[in-house]
């Protein structure tokens, strides 16, 4: 039996299974169920899955949004010996025909024969019927006997097929084994100084994303940690709900991508009553699902201080699905720590030299590798680089996936020595990770390596540009006259005078930030930039979009 499934069962049937649990349905109809109760439901579902013919190692897809349904469903699949794939969820703006086509490709890729279908996607049953996809509605009673004992499964069996939020339309799934999952969750709890008895986790993160699924469902369910879980739709409908939940439930651990902290700082700053929230219990606010904006973090901690939040609660991290979730964590309680370096030497020589004058870049320190993981930085020839030399990050350890599933079959992720190429560029400082950007996104001009995030943050500082909705893309990549353009979303789109002023403001801020003028600034209406289901910008698709728009001019 895998140690992961053993831990799930031990938690559910032990003291923490009776004492700890998950609260859902906030803020209108909160319901709390213990991990033991969730386990009982999972055993019933697992019994039905076995009667339906689920065999060990089979892939089961889950399409649901309600954490109260998802938690016992995914546990049931693991108890029955299967692997879980959380399908990307359609939104009100989704073209259902396109979604069905993409979903069918994913189901074929992972060879799933069954979809567990839950609220609010019950209405899609007819669409699945139309395409011959078998499904089992979640929440329906079953006559099957609950599964008496978990199905024996090995450490190297697949536990999770995590669909990536890639920059292309080609689906790909990261294969996470039982060994990977348990190793990474154990390492994260050690690095974050978890107290399973005292910590209370609060989250709105989507469960089809690795941070939501692994960090804020599977981890507390495995180790018996109290969890308060709402949906991304709940957060977007009222971002201050996040802090209301932390305040009322005395939350100690939460996490979000950088854009959410930017939204949160603005909403907290608009609250008139200093006593509206008590955030003094929060000891970890993890930030690591996308590049960390130093200014956004400082704005967040400044806004939260009024409600008793310690600036030391911010925990900067580096993670990726290919390492199950976490790669490196800053030390708890330290808060935001930055490495301020000479921008010219960073861009032209690949050296991170500490500087306090001239043009500088302040990059967050993302902590030491998690226990059981090794990180090294190499150049293009694979030569290991020294401290403060910028290069390509390689990763190795028990948390690292053995490979992907793609539409063209399995694809290994590791070289002969077990190293994974992360695709990220950066450097190490006293063993701590510093990320500069994605290798494929670097804009090369005049012998300088310009990282798009520097341009995008400058653009987002212009009034009228929607926070987190600017993208810098390469034009004429690889040529002697490589250029870049900036696309921004704004409610001013379509208003000629306002657009002109906005473009001028973006150009000024970008020139100030990186010393280079964009070839063009494109102003788009809200919700125009292509994004992944988890909300990350799809740079390759954005580059195509911008190129097409410029070609029409």
What is the fold's blueprint, element by element?
Elements: H1 3-13, H2 15-19, E1 21-24, E2 31-34, H3 35-51, E3 59-63, H4 67-79, E4 83-86, H5 96-110, E5 114-117, H6 125-130, E6 135-137, E7 158-163, E8 172-177, H7 178-191, E9 200-203, H8 210-223, E10 226-229, H9 232-237, H10 241-249, E11 253-256, H11 258-269, E12 284-287, H12 294-305, E13 314-319, E14 326-329, E15 338-342, H13 343-349, E16 360-364, E17 368-369, E18 373-378, E19 391-397, E20 403-406, E21 409-412, E22 420-429, E23 432-438, E24 443-445, E25 448-450, H14 452-460, E26 470-475, E27 483-489, H15 496-514, E28 520-524, H16 539-551
Parallel strand pairs: 1-10, 3-4, 3-5, 5-6, 9-10, 11-12, 12-13, 27-28
Antiparallel strand pairs: 1-2, 7-8, 8-20, 13-14, 14-17, 15-16, 18-19, 19-22, 20-21, 22-23, 24-25, 26-27
Helix pairs in contact: 1-3, 3-4, 11-12, 14-15
Give your account of this protein's structure.
A hairpin with a 6-residue loop joins β1 and β2. The protein is globular. The chain has three domains: 3-214, 3-Layer(aba) Sandwich (Rossmann fold), CATH 3.40.50.980; 238-440, 3-Layer(aba) Sandwich (Rossmann fold); 442-551, ANL, C-terminal domain (GMP Synthetase, Chain A, domain 3, 2-Layer Sandwich). It has 16 helices and 28 strands. The chain is of the alpha/beta class and 553 residues long. The protein has a five-stranded mixed sheet with strand order 11-12-13-14-17. It has a four-stranded mixed sheet with strand order 2-1-10-9, with helices on both faces. A four-stranded parallel sheet has the order 4-3-5-6. α1 packs across α3, α3 (35-51) crosses α4 (67-79) and α14 packs across α15 (496-514).
